[in-house]
Amino acid sequence: MIGGFFNVFRVPEIRSKLLITAGFLLLYRIGWNIPLPGIDLEGVKQAGGAEEGTFAALYSMISGGGIYSFALFGLGIMPYISSSIIFSLLTKVVPTLEAIAKEGAAGQRKINQWTRWATVPIAMLQAVIVVNNVYTKPGVIMDGPMLPGGFWMALAAVLSLTAGCVLLMWVGEQITEHGVGNGISILIMAGIIARVPNAVVDLMGQTKTMFLPFVLLVLFFVIVVCVVYITKGMRKIPVQYAKLTRGRRVYGGQRHFLPIKVNQSGVMPVIFASALLSFPMLIGQATGWEALQNAMTPGGWFYVIFNSALIFFFTFFWTSLMFNPVEMSKNMKEYGSFVPGIRPGKKTAEFLQKVMGRISLADATFLSAIAVIPQWIASSLSSEVTPQIYYFLGGTSILIVVSVALDMVDKLNSALLMRSYDGFMGGGSAGRLLRKR
To answer: Which residues, in sequence order, are bridge partners of residue 239?
Structure first.
């Protein structure tokens, strides 16, 4: 394993990708610590980066930013995620957009460009709500407002937050194109990991016994094992190739397997569901609607039902985008392969659709359980612990971090195997290959 780790840095192309990813993550952390113009820095020091309430904890986790950081990247990447959700749904219901999306790389570039443009007004709207209800409102953290100076300073803060979101969107796309893994997911993972040490310190300082930290530690390991098990799990469908006789030679006839991942949708349904759940909280905080804020409190029955329903919806929706049974059966028929006992063509497509539906149901159930059950357990253990502590140590955060980390390891493994290395988890033949060179 140690040899496989060092192999990553021996390949110039992979090394440059890792350095680019690390450089952009450094830029992200620098921007997260640049204060907004006009912010009361003494008040920020007194607040100590506190995040009051579940809304701020939820928003910070899914956006990669932090409202109460009062920083340039305070909005995080959530406006871009919201824009992506909108256009992902529109491409399924609007025939014109669906036709553009099917044009291949050119069509996808158009959709991506429109997604970027839609991110700007969404970010500006969220910035207005945050500045009006958090930064210029007295009594949220301290007696006076965190952003004194009137309209013009508030406008500067709105424009700065919007510009920070757009810059963060660009950083995420650059990581996806030139770095390792999905840039947006990596930024969200980095935001979660950056807050975990503070959450652990707060937890140890607020609990009088070691019972609660011990239970959370056990939950952490159980969730990690479950996430790795489901993420690596596959359903192998047997595929038989037809025999072809040419002259005296017989080709084909071999039996292979079509691997289908159980967690086909990855972590995107949880991120999308969390992004949409933040809107009712944002509206409730903007309008002062306490009933809506209480209903959307993590651990409440309405929140659990709404969150689970969104995870189920986005799991099936994302799977339908990634896996097309009709196209798969058509390709199998063209290459002379078939599923034993299933007729090629329509019957094969129906069989694959049935299998994919069952796998998606298991995947959605798993994601919902991981996102909801740890919050129930952690919130019921102690009422003295602040909400953001068990939120950052809950199942959703761990699911995002582990899933993104596994995706990065898979990409590094693939890159190493393409260059005759053993992969990220092994290093036997790599040393021999380097010695030959």
So the answer is: 256
Q: Residue 420: what are its φ and ψ, rounded to 5°?
A: 65, 25
Task: Determine the CATH number of domain 208-383.
Answer: 1.10.3370.10
Q: Are 270 and 367 in contact (CB under 8 A)?
A: yes
- DSSP assignments along 145-169, one per residue: -SS-S-HHHHHHHHHHHHHHHHHHH
pTM score: 0.75
Pull the structure tokens for residue 321: 């985008």
Q: Which two tokens stand for residue 398?
A: 């761990």
CATH number for the domain formed by residue range(s) 1-195: 1.10.3370.10
Q: What is the rounded CA–CA span in Å between residue 403 and residue 221?
A: 14
3-state secondary structure of 71: strand
Same CATH topology for 1-195 and 208-383: the answer is yes
CA 245 centroid distance within chain: 49
Q: d(Cα 19, Cα 358) in Å, to the nearest integer?
A: 41
pLDDT tens figures, 249-276? 665 567 788 888 888 887 788 878 877 7
The rounded distance, in Å, linking the Cα atoms of 427 and 410 is: 16
**Single-letter code of the amino acid located at 44:** V
Domain range summary for the chain, segments of one domain joined by + = 1-195, 208-383
- At 307-350, the pLDDT tens digits run 889 899 989 888 887 788 888 888 888 777 888 888 888 888 88
244: β partners: 251
